[in-house]
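Hey L., structure's done. Input below.
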Amino acid sequence: MTTQQTIDMGVPSAPRSAPRPVRIDAAGLTDVGRVRAKNEDAYLIATLQRSMIVHDASPDAARGWVPGETAGTLLVVADGMGGQGSGDVASQVAVNTIVGYLLNVMPWAAVRTSQVVGRDSAPSITGLRDELSAALVTGDSTVKAVGIQQGSPRMGTTLTMALVQWPILYVAHVGDSRGYVARGGQLRRLTTDHTMAQQISERDPTLIEEGSSLHHMLWNSLGGSEDVARPQLTKFVLEVGDLLLLCSDGLNKYVGEPEIAQVLASREPLVARCRELVDRANAAGGADNVTVVIASAE
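Output:
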């Protein structure tokens, strides 16, 4: 049985009229940092789209690739954990497995707009959150299987995945990579760190010191343990002008949230903002790989 945590954050009533088209732009960057010999992070930016390749038809003009309706923008950040030095394998296997799962299993029906006025009403696809959770659980089992095959049974990875189906953002998350939304210069975290320190501090913050090793000890990951992954699912309503940030902990260990918000609020191109965040993490220590993905809604 798949166990998951689901959070709805600020879901408004359905719009009474069709919203204007919104463009989602995105950029990403990953860096090995200043200490590590190998980059075990991975990221992905993609547009999910149903399509058809026509091999033969009458008239001839009908042949070729026929694009279908776009199903959303997909963003993924994964931070591999080595075990026997296979963290890069774990993160890439997880990303590939989850993307393949979504392409073949995700419901491709058009987004249905609810006509019921109420805070919990919003355009959505039936069963989508269950499929996103199942995608992460499938990634967990695949990472474990590949680890056993390659002699690295303890390899694992974090993974934070965002699916934008305007105006709805779905975030599926395992581990201590993070997902944020920046709005009006303010940064809002959408994910919870799945670390032992976070679990303890939720009961009593005075029991955890800032430098404790428990901040880096995961209780929830893809692979890495015998337990089945427990995805956290968050649903959030975006607005025009919002920025979405996914990052590995190589960023937030060295760059505080006020500083992250300041960089995101700049007018530089998205790729330049990615570079600025990575550079700041490296300048502050850079003892870990660092990966950032930024998306804007315009």
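The first helix runs from residue 87 to 105. The domain at 5-50+65-192+220-297 is CATH 3.60.40.10 (Phosphatase 2c; domain 1).

-- N.
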